[in-house]
Amino acid sequence: MSKNFIIFHLDDGKELRGGQRQVLHLATELNKLGYRNIIACRKNSPLEKTSMEKHLETINLPYIFEWDILSALILRIQIKNITKGKKTTAILHSHTSHTAALSYLVSLFLPVIRIVHRRVDFKVKRGLSSRLKYSKANKIIVVSNAIKKILISGNTDEDKISIVPSAANINNLPWSENNFKEYKEKSKKEISEKFSIVKDSFWIGSLIALVPHKNPENFLKAAKLVLAKFPETHFILAGKGELFGELNNLALKLSIQNNFHIIGYQADPYQILSALDLFVLPSREEGLGSVLIEAMNAKLPIVATNAGGITDIIEDEKNGLIVEKENAGELAKAQIRLIEDKNLREALAEEGYKKRINLSSEKMAAATLEIYEETIKNTQFD
Fold first, then answer.
1. How far out from the chain centre does Cα 118 lie?
2. Can you tell me the distance from the alpha carbon of 64 to that of 132, in angstroms, rounded to the nearest whole number?
3. Which sign does the torsion angle of CA 296, 330, 310, 21 carry?
4. Which pLDDT band, with edges at 50, 70 and 90, does 131 fall under?
């Protein structure tokens, strides 16, 4: 495989969420394979900090607004300086919608490859902006069939779209196969003490951004119903976002504040995941839900909604239970079923743990590399 290209990963995220973690996974794996990756992110962003901690090459762009000419000019200069005198192709891999606009501006009169990554299942707005971002891209990578269908319905050429599921670094774990139970016990003890959660109870949790499309309100409403039958259960919601205050108020309104713990963003997801007995993803819209892979990696049974691309990786009754989105009753019913059925919990967790092998960061990087190579091969510059 040729290495005559340099990848610029463009991400304007202000937080370190699922998309940014995928950028880090991809760049790390490509680095291991000897490819030069440069992460172009905001200065002092969590992505910059984490990228530098991982010793990944990093540059900064201002990312003032979507069609930011200043950022485009800065990036053009960077590309010209880095590729000057070399027989190498610059690949602009946009990991957010706004950076897809930036890559289009950079590509004007500059021979670069534009790869646009889409991880959300929101409908694409019709208009010139979307046409320039998506229709003019050399290739579009989506993480699920649901997103592919949305793009096709918006008149995006199907031949331009490739599906590469999100991934997890399944081998970079804070435990070994031999000491997982000990690590789980230690994590549960530490979290119990830190957040005053009854240790010897059944723990149900979720790690999500506290934003509308993740629908954390439905998780709380379902918890109210679960607690009516199993009042000793405790719920943990880890994450931050615009709904943080509203969710705390809702917990009070539902009178579940003693059993429902909203603990904010946690830097170490596996400490939380390893301590849980059951994982729930309550989303109303979801590109794929990469946190599900981490939950499977932590040997957890899963209850998730049928939103977006979730059903691409969770098969109902096989490696998780799938319920109708925005239905608190069904979400609660599935959780109650798993509280009552230990054998089913263990069977779902075991099957999920097997399936996560196909969702590794190594396989994601290999599939992405094939797309880079194929796109360069099939692109003729004027």
1. 11
2. 19
3. negative
4. confident
What pLDDT is attached to residue 1? 44
In whole angstroms, how far apart are CA 97 and each of 11, 22, 45, 104, 171?
A: 9, 15, 18, 11, 30
Nearest to 261 by CA among 291, 289, 227: 227
Instruction: Output DSSP code: residue 222.
Output: H
Query: CA–CA separation, 252 vs 110, rounded Å?
Result: 56
Helix axes 18-32, 361-377, angle to 10 degrees: 70
pLDDT the model gives residue 381: 74
Distance CA 93, CA 119 (A): 13
DSSP-derived 3-state class of residue 260 = strand
With tokens 């692109």, the residue in question is 379
Q: What is the set of domains in the chain, with CATH numbers?
A: 5-167+360-377 (3.40.50.2000), 180-359 (3.40.50.2000)
Q: Which residues pair with 9 in a beta bridge?
A: 39, 93
